[in-house]
Amino acid sequence: MSLHGGMLIGLSVVMVMALFGRIAGIAGITYGVLGTDAPVKGVATDWGWRLAVLLGFVAAPFAVVVVGGDVAQTVSDNLPSVESAGLLVGLSTALGSGCTPGHGVCGLTRLSSRSVKAVGTLMAAAGVTVLLLRHVFGA
């Protein structure tokens, strides 16, 4: 199942680049819909496909259930922990000019030096976080 999902992500990245000439990073897609797409503020003129992508993210789990699949809850139900994680992800996305999947899937495939640095930094931070949480704090 993960292989199929990965293949669909790769295909979607290629399709967005081929059809719209844009990078399929979720941060840029979201910013364009919300009107915060840097460097030009305001809703992107190509907001239609961006909104379709975001609605697809919301609709996908429901579609899986409709066709008889199972959607397992894998996110913690500890609200303060999830809120903190969301804040940190949002902050790092803003500071890093994109999200981890955007840099990893879209940036690395384009051999972007900024994405190589971003992914390296993010992976190092993830390693330190796991080390601290599992081995120092015992979480």
From the structure above, extract its key features.
globular; single chain; mainly alpha; 139 residues
Short description:
The chain is mainly alpha-helical.
| Broad structural category | mainly alpha
* Helical stretch tally: 6
How much β-strand is present in the residues?
Answer: under 5%
The H/E string reads HHHHHH
End-to-end separation in angstroms reads 29 Å
Mean pLDDT, to the nearest integer, reads 84
CA-based shape: globular
Helicity level: 55-70%
Question: How many domains make up the 3D coordinates?
Answer: 2
What does the largest sheet look like? Answer: none
Radius of gyration: 17 Å
What is the assembly state of the chains in this entry? single chain
| Uncertain spans | none
Structure write-up:
- It is built from 6 helices and no strands.
- It is an all-alpha fold and 139 residues long.
- The protein folds into 2 domains: 1-72, no CATH class; 76-139.
- Helix 2 (26-34) crosses helix 3 (47-66) and helix 5 (100-107) crosses helix 6 (113-136).
